[in-house]
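Entry 14. Structure prediction run on the chain below.
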Amino acid sequence: MDDAANGLTPTLQNGSESLQIQVEVHQKLDSIAMKEDIKLSVLKLLNRHNVVFGDYKWTEFDDCFLTNNVQSVAIVDTELKLKERQPISLSRCSLSIHIFHLNEEGPRAENLDEEDEAIVAANHWVLPAVEFHGLWDSLVYDAQIKADLLDYVTTALLFSDRNVDSNLISWNRVVLLHGPPGTGKTSLCKALAQKLAIRLSDRYYYGQLIEINSHSLFSKWFSESGKLVTKMFQKIQESIDDKNALVFVLIDEVESLTAARNAVRGGTEPSDAIRVVNAVLTQIDQIKRYPNVVILTTSNITEKIDMAFVDRADIRQYIGPPSTAAIFKIYLSCLEELMKRQIIYPRQQLLTLRELEMIGYLESDVSKLSLILKEISSHLTLQWQHSFKLCHLWWTSNLKKERNFQIVFDIFFPIMFYCIYYFF
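Output returned:
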């Protein structure tokens, strides 16, 4: 069993190469054991459990060294490599083992001084952070969204590490996630930053996530907003200067900072906004020269973003309402968690969509509850699609954001409790 080199390595594989499996090892906070010693013990553990069925996590160990130093060992993200869940022979795979501590300090506020008041311009986390632990696994999306984002950012950082000429191969390390509100775009950005801080822990000593508070950068004083943006990016520059750190800059609702300049010229936006757009574009062009920074952005109203910013985004990924399969998987994970905590008791067997398909969706004592859940998921898909259309309509009509989320909760919670009480 090979221990694959960690860090920045090309992800393109041909059919003759072995499957690459990611193993995440959560080292205890008080552990001072060397990574190499932990890695050897983890390899022995994996040799004893040579075959796994999809993702798997160990939290209890026969090995005293692992018990004293390791919180968990997890085989992760196999669904990103395999089309369906299946047995995996670890001896035939290439293993990438990532050992990490979780930072428990919480976010730190980044303040900017304007006249006599301090503005909270950003929140700053050291990664991997305990707040984002498990967030990646809790997010359910269709197709290859998570895999594509991981591959893109890893490849972009590889290009930077190998000094690829950006004049020949254009890449800015800017990601734009867009779609209706409430689809998890911001959470996905945070989870992606956490995941990459773990994956690249051999290349970068730690990660940093700086979440910019876009609305706080608009000054009450005319023409000062652009200066506040510049000050904010100057603070970010201090983090980027640490070459041992992988820095993620998160700009949520980026349309508030990059409003289309033609709207300004048309008189529908304040003229101070054009200075903000210019400042943001200038700062992005400056920091993209550094190999250890990635800019993650989200938008609910893509059509309002300045095209010059959109052109700078290497990947523009739409995050829409979940499909029937995604809704089914979300509810399945919720019900599994409630049964695990014995809130729902006794435990009932629930089949995945793949398992239902294999039995031809035939109803039996074993499949009955899962078929009901599938029917609920199909019905909910239509309701969510309708509700998100209403959300987008209300959003563009400048109604309060809470109204948008309320319609989703009005649908989500009743059906969640319906599942619990109807099933059990």
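The mean pLDDT is 83.
Filed with the rest of this week's runs.
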